[in-house]
Each structure stands twice: as C-alpha cells, then as structure tokens.
Amino acid sequence: MASQNSVLAGPNHSVVVVGGGPGGYEAALVARRAGADVTVVERNGLGGAAVLTDVVPSKTLIATAEWLTIAESAPELGIRTGGAPVAPGDDQGARRALVDMEAVNTRVLALAAAQSADIRGRLEREGVTVVEGSGRLDGASRVVATPSDGGAEVVLDADIVLVATGATPRTLPTAEPDGERILTWTQLYNLPELPERLVVVGSGVTGAEFAGAYQALGSEVVLVSSRDRVLPGEDEDAAELLEGVFRSRGMTVMSRSRAAGAERTADGVVVTLTDGRTVEGSHVLVAVGGVPNTAGMGLEEAGVRLADSGHIEVDRVSRTSVRGVYAAGDCTGVLPLASVAATQGRIAMAHALGDAVAPLHLGNVAANIFTAPEIATVGYSEQALRAQGSRYVTTTLPLARNPRAKMHGVRDGFVKLFAHPEAGVVLGGVVVGPRASELIFPVTIAVSERLTVDDVAETFTVYPSLSGTIAETARVLHGQLTR
Questions:
Q1: Dist CA 304 CA 306 (whole Å)
Q2: Kind and range of the H or E run holding 61
Q3: What is the DSSP string of 414-469?
Q4: Of all residues in the chain, what percent carry a pLDDT higher than 70?
C-alpha cells in the first residue's frame, strides 16, 4: 500500500541526492533498487564526513589507542613488556617513544579512503550516477551541481530530492583553526608527531573521545569543560565513572571552565578562559559541536523551512516543508549519529517511493561513546524518566564482579537497566565497559521488542562472558518487581 503523501517514484522517475554520507548513499541504494534513476552529488568523497573525517578515522585512531590502554593491565596479568620509560616514572614519555604518529595517521586516512572507495564502487555497481561537486536547489524539483573540477554546471531535474549535506565543526571566532596548532577534529590526522600537551576544549562526546585517545597514546591532556562534569548530556553515573578514570590516568579535567579564545605562541598555544586564567599547550583541539551545511543551498528560496540553528526541519519520515524534498543526517539536527542518518535516508526513500514505512523512533536508537571504558545507551535515560515523572525501577551491577572481567583485569564499568514497575518491560539501559558498543545489542533488542525483565533474565548467556552481567542485572530487577 502506498504511504500517504508519497511521491510515488519508480521506473523512469528521477531521484537526486545531495550529499554522499550515510544518509545519502543509503537513500540512493533504496531508490535505485526500486527502479528509480538516481544521481548522487558529493563534493568531498563518497561516505561524506562520517567516513572521511569523522566516524571512521576517529574510531580507527581510538582503536589504535586502545592497544596501549589494554597494555596497562599487562603486569597484573603476568606479562612483562619490554622497554624502559624515557625517565623514571614517565609513562607518558614511554608511550610517546612507542607511537609513530605519522604511521598511525597514514593508516587512519588509508582506511577512510578505502571505505570511501568501497561505497563508490557499490553505488556504481547498482547503477547510481555520481557527480563530484557541490549541489544547490533551484526550486523544489531541480538541483544544480557545480563540478569540483571547475567544469560547467550540471542541471538535474528531479521528482524527489534528498538533502544529506551533513555538518562541519563549529569554530570559535577567537580560536580560528590553522591546521597546525589550533585544530578541529578533521585536522588532527595531518599531524606528523604526537602532541606533547593537548588542550581539548569541549567535554561532549567528541571532546571526551579524543581526550581519552590522545592521553592513551601518550599526550599530556587538559580537558576544558564548561559544565560540572564531562559528558553533561549522558547518564550521570557513567559520566562520573569516566571522569574518574580520566583523572586516575593523569588527565587534567577543568570543570566549570569556559574557553574564551586561543592563540599561537612561539612553540605552542595558549588558551584563555573567560575568568582570565590561561592554559598552555603544544596544540589545542576545539570540539564545541557542529554547524549544519545548509547555507547557500537555495533551501529557503525553495520553501524549505530551516530552524534558527540552520538545521532543516523534518518529520519522522524525513519530509521537509516542501513536497518531494526530503532531508537526512546531521543537517537535520535530529540526532548526530551515522546510524540515524542512514535510517533517515532509507525511511525517506521508502516513503517517497510509496513503500510501507515505519517512522523514525528515537527511543530505539542505541548510541555509543568510544572512550575507555566505552559508554553505550539505549531507550529512556534516567534523566528523561525523572523529568517526565515516570515510575520506574532500576538496578546497577558493577562489571568488576563478573568473572570474565576479572580474567581481563577489567575494573571500571557497570550495567544499569530501567524497567516499568508493574509490567516489567525494559525501558532502557546503560552499559559501561570494554566493547559496550557490542554489549548494548541485547538491551537494544529488549527495548525495541518491549521484552520484559524476565525475558532477559531467563535467556541463556555464555559462561564466562561480560554479557552475563546483563542477565544478572535483569534477575536482580526481577526481585525488585516481585517485592
């Protein structure tokens, strides 16, 4: 059955996608398989920022840093590592001696490029036309593409337009990035050497991830947080644990400290705080959010409604205010996750093509912060449950008592579940620990399928395994429900 208000494209109908990131290329694949004529306009490379400058490279860097974090447990496990510290007690110096930053970054960028090439190859095999350049709307049913090679503009008429142009790092006018000392997260991979002292401005997800990674690699790190704690939007217990881990590893965390600007010095940078204090470093990373790539695209002229922030306003099936124009990904401001962007793109095309479609439900979205330990969440947060006055029961169990965790020397982490006090339905969960991004999956299934605490508690887990703590947490919750 055709969905209401769909455009009903199909064979001999045209779809133009502006932006080749997860939202764009996933939408292109759906549309092409439905028989539409599909063109993707992308200026920087298939995969967009997610593949080339954000998710893939940052997580590759973090995976490299993870090896050094794991090595911290080597003596406890009976393993003696070779090599002496540069100076007695100078663990950071020893790590700097071990890390070839140029080789690390070469690998990071090579993997990103390979992933981008794989995506391009897949699109071309499916019959999608790729135009390298920038796209702008000329009304609701036409896209004008300006090729990157300076060639003549290409006019693309379309029955459906999807805008998936993503976002770029937000900068401070008093700390303009120069790509050498004052950096955004897209510029870190050009550094030939590991920063000796990295000042990270911003303690959200991006700031926390890079601060943890560079500290593990051997940089001295100062994390400047304008809020009371790191990760102010995340579970309080998880954020408190992570901040404690950061501090225990030697990171300086400056809470309630807002950066006013940053300037280069003869051999580094100096960051000035709003209260007049200064912080010196070799480099500074400004991680204060993103700005949607929507300016100068002809969106408002075409009637597409934008929020004050510049984000494109969309509904739960990715429709904009103009019939036939959809949007997906970070340019919509819905939730800045590659998985959400891809889902938005698929939903948009399913709706536009008249296919059956389930609107986006953010309550089922699993998210992960790739720090060490990782923090994964799904469903209702405790903060949201409290704010809306919902009744719930919760239990938290530490990973330190899990036998598999003991074998690996894991001390930091926990599993927390929330459930309805009468129905016993799992409302949400938090997993903090190694590979939390994998461990959250059974909790995500429970939330998505409205499973009960008993459903989770009675499901077999491998012994020994970290996932056993998820089932154990559910068993403890069962006891609370039956009191």
A1: 6
A2: helix 55-71
A3: EEEEEE-TTT-BEEEEEEEETTHHHHHHHHHHHHHTT-BHHHHHTS---SS-TTHH
A4: 94
3-state secondary structure of 60: helix
* pTM beyond 0.85: yes
CA gap 308, 324 in Å, rounded: 23
Q: Which amino acid is at 426?
A: V
Paired residues of 395 in beta bridges:
417
Q: Which residues contact 322 (CB under 8 A, 6 or more apart)?
A: 140, 302, 303, 304
Q: Tell me the C-alpha distance between 93 and 105, whole Å.
A: 19
Question: Residue 173 corresponds to which tokens in the numbers above?
Answer: 């006018």
What span, in angstroms and rounded, lies between the C-alpha atoms of 2 and 353? 8
**CA dihedral sign of residues 7, 12, 17, 23:** positive
Give the list of residues 6+ apart from residue 253 with CB closer than 8 angstroms, or none: 203, 223, 225, 230, 243, 246, 247
Q: How far apart are CA 243 and CA 230, in angstroms?
A: 6
Helices (H), 72-175: 91-98, 101-126
Q: Which helix (H) or strand (E) holds 200?
A: strand 197-201
Peptide bond into 373 cis (omega under 30): yes
As a 3-state breakdown, the chain gives helix, strand, coil percent values, each rounded to 5, of: 35, 25, 45
Quick one: which of 330, 286, 53 has its CA closest to 172?
286
Residue 398, C-beta contacts closer than 8 angstroms, at least 6 positions apart: 413, 414
SS3 of residue 42 by DSSP: strand
Give the SS3 label for residue 203.
coil
E strands, 242-320, are 252-254, 259-264, 269-273, 278-281, 283-286, 290-292
pLDDT tens by residue, 423-468: 999 999 999 999 999 999 999 999 999 999 999 999 999 999 999 9
Strand order in the sheet with 129-137: 154-157, 142-147, 129-137, 37-42, 14-18, 160-163, 325-327
CB under 8 Å to 37, separation ≥6 — which residues?
12, 13, 14, 15, 129
Give the pLDDT band of residue 2 (cuts 50, 70, 90).
very low
Provide the 3-class DSSP secondary structure of residue 99: coil
Q: How far apart, in whole angstroms, are the C-alpha atoms of residue 43 and residue 381?
A: 38
What's residue 6's pLDDT? Answer: 54
3-state secondary structure of 123: helix
Express each pLDDT in 300-332 by its tens digit.
Answer: 999 999 999 999 999 999 999 999 999 999 999
Helix (H, G, I), strand (E, B) or coil at 352: helix
Instruction: Take residue 471 and report the two structure tokens written for it.
Output: 């089932």
Structural contact between residues 186 and 286, judged by C-beta atoms closer than 8 angstroms? no
Contact 422, 413 (CB under 8 A): no
